[in-house]
What we know:
The protein has helices at residues 21-28, 59-73, 87-98, 111-116, 148-152, 186-189, 203-213, 220-231, 233-256, 276-285, 307-322; strands at residues 34-35, 81-84, 103-106, 121-123, 132-136, 157-161, 179-184, 197-200, 260-265, 268-272, 288-289, 291-292, 299-303. A 7-stranded mixed sheet has the order 2-8-7-6-5-3-4, sandwiched between helices. It has a 4-stranded antiparallel sheet with strand order 9-10-13-12, covered by helices on one side. The chain has a two-stranded parallel sheet with strand order 1-11. Helix content is 38%, strand content 16%. It is α/β, with parallel strands linked by helices. It is globular, with a radius of gyration of 20 Å. The chain folds into 2 domains: 12-43 and 235-322, Alpha-Beta Complex (Aspartate Aminotransferase, domain 1); 59-231, Type I PLP-dependent aspartate aminotransferase-like (Major domain) (Aspartate Aminotransferase, domain 2, 3-Layer(aba) Sandwich). The protein is built from 11 helices and 13 strands.
Amino acid sequence: MEPRAPVPHPWATFCAHGGRVAAARAAFGGADWIDLSTGIAPWSWPVDTLAGLDRLPEPAEIAALEAAAARAFGVADPAQVVAVPGTDLAMRLLAPLIGARAPAVRHPGYAGHRAAWPGAELVAEGPGDHDLFVLASPANPDGRLAGPVDLLAAPMTLVLDEAYADPAAGLCPHASDRLIVLRSFGKFYGLPGLRLGFVVAGDRIAGGLRAMLGDWPVSSPAVAIGTAAYRDIAWRRAQASRIVETGALLDTVLHEAGLALAGSAPLFRLVACDDAARLFGTLAHHAILTRPFADRTDRLRIGLPRGATALTRLAAALEEYRS
Length: 323
């Protein structure tokens, strides 16, 4: 008997990554969409103007950005912190720079890791006999935290994606050419379109990455906004409090809807339900976009709503789902 072909996910368009609001609007209609699909903070650091568009960023300004990021990450030497135009691109640059012969990528996890290392073996737990292990902590989509003691003792090179770690320092203070840490600016600061991230590594990897990126690795607006935002300690603390408080409210709404948590991180929740595709569709018909998964049709990731109005709309849509 021929094996059955896998059944395609009914919402396959939205399984690759979050943020496809235009596709959702085309599929379901509606105008005032609430995007809970990305795991990005719904409050943005206040940007007054995109200063610097009329000139290239100066080397000293890029160095100031990296120094501000280093302080935020608890890294003593700013030379270890390399500004990049988003960590997704940085991973694709790191792959040939590291040159691993037998890479492994934790699965389930962020699809961008597999895209950067397409020949890597997918592993659920430890990396085994591989010379490179790529993983996230907190993990995407279940929020699992990797044990720092185990990571620091790992015998192979690690690429640790800490995109969701802010405002914690994570393992950045321990970064080296054997422990390469990725940090995202846009998720915690609510400015993903700025395309700003950082690679924290030892001298060889940091120097090789700077050579690949050239003199202007990120835009002048990214330099100005990133530097000011990392120096804004009061806003950083307020943002952390907003995330915790809204997360607790979201947990209550999900619990009242009878949804079990399969995982969580500060900026998102992963819910488990047998008919996650129906839940996705119900929310989409209320112009609420969430994140389904092609390989886990019983899972749905839901980000933080902004404000009481969005939370009330989510609760009403979930009530319809329950009934």
